[in-house]
Specification:
- With 538 residues, the protein is an alpha/beta fold.
- Helix content is 57%, strand content 20%.
- The chain is built from 16 helices and 15 strands.
- A 6-stranded antiparallel β-sheet has the order 2-1-4-5-6-7, with helices on one face.
- Strand 10 and strand 11 form a beta hairpin.
- It is elongated, with a radius of gyration of 49 Å.
Length: 538
């Protein structure tokens, strides 16, 4: 329940602190006194729109704070608006988002203002009432969760399918490039090897000629070769060594030189034999180089490594398309499963709603008859609809004041009938929603006399099990409250400002206020007497 409301610098309210009791709390006042200001302040606590125009003239900020008794203890909601346009929200003195305020306030109080009667024409509101009555709100929440999940799955599928379509358009090209590069059999370092081999093959004849000249130097045709000459020199040095010390070292060095030269000669001969003068091999090497050069120009690189990187990119692109196909298939399968689960929930909801529709309508009719619409008829019509967050049903409330065939309530009900229908529905909501505090803003508009008395009785009955704040202009309703507050405007000559005041009335003050509701501005003795009778009866 709403324990207290504290307001600072909100429109015409400079400072207001109200403590509310349990039960039915009546709020009355002259037209234009500012009763709607209280609703606006509560609306801010519910996450409603706030802007600098709500701040009292000359103030830098306004504050609205509500204290609520709950099963979990005291909860405090506070909203602060600043003249800069900024606002802050708090729950239990901790900063909070507006959505958090909205979610919490929805469990603490419900405001029915005059324009909220338009909700009666809202098909989603009608369906929500039926669902609460049928006790299938958990099914509805699960249905909404599944619908959201299905929507996300479908969006993911559309995104993946779009990417797949775009990739498929390039896939043939990517595949062709990958096949060409794979067929090239790229090998790291191959280009340098081929260029060196091509250089050798292109100059093979000249190379062999030079090698032959070098080989001839080792063994000239006109004399003995270098090796024989070195052997002869070693024998001479060895003979001289008999008479001259140190010659052995020179002999050893000549042996080493001879062995090294013989090895060089052997390699020259081998190289000459290995040198390929085949034009076919040269053609093969040049064709291979031509292929590699063409591929490098095509893919904008200057090395085999660059070609290998290009090949890997095309491979990833082709593989990525395959991954997208797998993802699309998985998402398509997931969507089908979610659709089946959602359909099963829709079927369960349809069964629960169909079963509850008759009892729901019967209870509304019972309330309407009590409110002196003795011949009124009310029907809940369910029709199949496209699947959605709330299932696959469309609901219509059909009403007939004279017992004839019902038509859409929005098209046939008068203002007084709308008020009585809404009160009947709110009375039912109070039971099945377990709302701690219900706020009525002239829900009794358009009725009078005995009907007003019975509406007051219904509101009073609701106040026995919950806290009800009722802003009313009907004395029959006002007389039934367990507490009564009067809203008024007061002009302060010192500041030349008008401000809104709220005071609790009791005893004779309350009698006079109810008498004012009975007779208007001039309170007559007869009105006072009548007010006392009304209060005594309640």
């Amino acid at each position: 329940m709403l324990r207290s409301l504290h307001i600072r610098n909100y429109i015409l309210i400079d400072s207001l602190d109200i403590t509310f009791p349990e039960g039915l709390v009546i709020i009355t006042g002259q037209t234009g006194a500012g009763k709607s200001i209280l609703l606006g302040a509560l609306g801010l606590l519910a996450g409603g729109k706030g802007d600098p125009s709500l701040i009292s003239q000359g103030a830098e900020s306004c504050v609205v704070e509500g204290e609520f008794h709950t099963s979990d203890g005291l909860r405090i909601i506070r909203r602060v608006l600043y003249s800069s346009g900024r606002s802050r929200s708090f729950i239990d003195d901790c900063p909070a988002q507006l959505q958090e305020l909205s979610d919490l306030s929805a469990t603490l109080f419900d405001i029915h203002s005059q324009h909220r009667s338009l909700l009666l024409t809202d098909k989603q509101f009608q369906l929500s009432l039926l669902d609460h009555f049928a006790g299938c709100t958990e099914l509805v929440e699960e249905c909404r969760r599944l619908w959201r999940e299905l929507g996300e799955c479908r969006r993911s599928f559309d995104e993946a399918a779009g990417m797949l379509n775009r990739s498929s358009a390039e896939r043939d090209y990517n595949q062709a490039q990958l096949v060409e590069l794979d067929a090239a059999g790229l090998r790291d370092g191959e280009l340098q090897e081929l260029e060196e081999e091509q250089q050798a093959l292109a100059n093979a004849e000249q190379i062999r000629e030079r090698l032959a000249v070098a080989a001839a130097c080792f063994s000239p045709p006109e004399g003995s070769g270098i090796g024989e000459s070195l052997k002869e020199a070693r024998r001479a040095l060895e003979h001289a060594g008999r008479f001259l010390p140190g010659m052995q070292e020179l002999c050893d060095r000549l042996d080493s030189a001879r062995i090294e030269l013989e090895d060089i000669f052997s390699e020259v001969e081998d190289t000459a034999e290995r040198t390929d003068v085949s034009g076919r091999r040269l053609e093969q090497v040049e064709n291979r180089l031509s292929l590699l050069y063409r591929l490098m120009r095509k893919h904008g690189c200057d090395s085999i490594e660059g070609l290998m990187e290009a090949r890997d990119r095309f491979s990833c692109a082709v593989t990525g398309t395959e991954d997208l196909e797998e993802r699309c298939n998985a998402l398509r399968k997931q969507a089908r499963e979610l659709e089946e689960r959602h359909k099963a929930l829709c079927d369960s909801l349809q069964a629960s709603r169909s079963k509850a529709a008759g009892a729901f309508a019967a209870e509304v009719v019972e309330h309407l008859h009590f409110l002196e619409l003795e011949r009124a008829g009310f029907e809940v019509k369910l029709e199949p609809a496209g699947p959605g967050a709330s299932g696959a049903d469309a609901v219509s409330f059909l009403f007939a004041a004279d017992g004839t065939r019902g038509t859409d309530v929005a098209k046939c009900a008068s203002g007084g009938e709308i008020s009585r229908i809404m009160l009947s529905l709110k009375a039912m909501m109070a039971k099945f929603k377990g709302m701690p505090t219900l706020v009525f803003d002239e829900i009794d508009s358009g009725v009078s006399g005995s009907v007003a008395d019975k509406m007051g009785q219904m509101i009073c009955d609701m106040g026995r099990t919950m806290q009800v704040l009722s802003i009313t202009h009907l004395p029959q309703v006002a007389a039934k409250g367990s507490a009564h507050f009067v809203v008024s405007k007061e002009f302060d000559p010192a500041t030349s400002r008008t401000s809104t005041r709220v005071r609790q009335v009791d005893g004779e003050d309350r009698v006079r206020e109810i008498a004012r509701l009975l007779s208007g501005a001039a309170v007559t003795p007869e009105a006072i007497a009548n007010a006392k009778v009304l209060m005594k009866e309640n």
